[in-house]
Amino acid sequence: MKIQKALHRIRPKELLDYRFLFYTLLHIGHSRGFDQYFTGATIKHLPGEKLAKVEVDFPPLPIQRRIAGILSAYDELIENSQRRIRILEAMARALYREWFVHFRFPGHENHPRVSSPLGEIPEGWEVKGLGQVADVNRAQINARTAPRELHYIDISSVSPGRIDSITTYALADAPGRARRIIQHGDVLWSCVRPNRRSHAQVMNPDPDTIASTGFAVLTPTKVPFTFLYCATTTDEFVDFLTNNATGSAYPAVTAATFERSALLVPTSPLLEKFGDVTISTAEEIHTLQRQIQNLRRTRDLLLPRLLSGHIEVEAA
Predict the structure, then answer these.
(1) Burial class (CB in 10 A: 0-12, 13-18, 19+), 230
(2) Does the pLDDT of residue 282 top 70, yes or no?
(3) pLDDT, mean of residues 247-268
(4) 213-226 in b/e burial notation, b at 16+ Cβ within 10 A?
(5) All domains of the chain, ordered by start, with CATH?
(6) Rounded to an integer, what is the distance from CA 9 to the centroid of its chain?
(7) What are the residues whose beta carbons fall under 8 Å from the beta carbon of 294, sequence distance 6 or more?
(8) Residues near 217 by Cβ (< 8 Å), separated by ≥ 6?
(9) What's the pLDDT at 309?
């Protein structure tokens, strides 16, 4: 295995458990303990000679291993849940491709094809603009409707396929871009640099959850929300957004770009059948994501207490 030169490799010696060292460095990072060693004004760096000066307190090896075992148990549960999520997502996408890309849907053998702007498609299917089956940026808060407190989703908090974090603000302290009202089933798509695939399905959000105006919020009106999410996160859809982005430094698309994008929409019975199969999958994925958040929160609460000795390993 090779690593990039911009990374440091730390290899612990005999008296230091590698997992204990990992969690110790994780705690130092969380508590900003590396900041004093950074160099550079705009882009921070941590040179190897500075990293070597970082002090690490460590108990006897058996206690190190016990602490590492407690914390790594949480990470193993997190990894198992993440693996299940990947399997469920792959199943939903495979079903979408099978039915709506390869046209191997139930009863396809006796279903005739007709010509369309996208080539031959099953009879009864239509090519529609996204704006015909979904609303783009349906609603946003204003001075009259704004809540006193809101839960904010920023562009930086969304990575491909998931919402990593939501920050709660009093209205007076909220960023000016906190405007887009979201609801269950919405699709969030970052308008900036669409090639980065910063998108996510919104599932059971808390009341007064608001997204940045840097997102396009897609609300399904005539298709199941799982169909809209699968259709707007394919490689072909990402290519469409990327090719229609404007601006050199920060290529971006607009709501109009989403509205005019072409979607292949099957018959209502087939859409309903797809929703019946995939909505329960989306709910299970959401439950697993919540479990992962809780596990991480618990691990991060235990981390400093175990390392500092405030919690005895026997009690933990």
Answers:
(1) buried
(2) yes
(3) 95
(4) bbbbbbbbeebbbb
(5) 126-264 (3.90.220.20)
(6) 28
(7) none
(8) 136, 137, 138, 180, 181, 182, 186, 187, 188, 211
(9) 83
- CB-hemisphere CA count at 13 Å for 143? 0
> Which ranges in the chain belong to alpha helices (H)?
18-30, 48-51, 61-100, 225-231, 235-243, 255-260, 268-308
* Residue 109 CA: distances (Å) to CA of 103, 112, 113, 122, 130: 10, 8, 11, 11, 28
Q: Read off the pLDDT of each residue in 202-210 and give the average, rounded to a whole number.
A: 95
Query: What letter would DSSP give residue 140?
Result: B
Give SS3 for 149.
strand
Residue whose C-alpha is closest to residue 232's, from 208, 192, 201, 254: 201
Helices 18-30/268-308 angle, 10° precision = 100
Enclosing H/E stretch for 129: strand 126-129
Residues 6+ apart with CB under 8 A from 37: 46, 50, 51, 53, 54
What is the distance between the terminal CA atoms of the chain, rounded to a whole angstrom?
A: 36
> Closest Cα partner for 61 from 22, 15, 24?
15
Those residues with Cβ within 8 angstroms of residue 198's Cβ, 6 or more apart along the chain or in another chain: 155, 158, 159, 160, 189, 190
Q: Which residues contact 159 (CB under 8 A, 6 or more apart)?
A: 198
DSSP of 245-256: -B-SSS-B--HH
Q: Which two tokens stand for residue 64?
A: 């190190």
Dihedral over alpha carbons 249, 254, 260, 264 (to 10 degrees)? 80
Q: What is the mean pLDDT of residues 183-187?
A: 97
Instruction: Describe the crossing of helices 268-308 and 61-100 by its angle, rounded to 10 degrees.
Output: 170
- For residue 119, CA distances in Å to 96, 98, 107, 241, 263 come to 18, 17, 20, 21, 13
Tokens of 128: 């529609």
Place of tokens 């009202």: 181
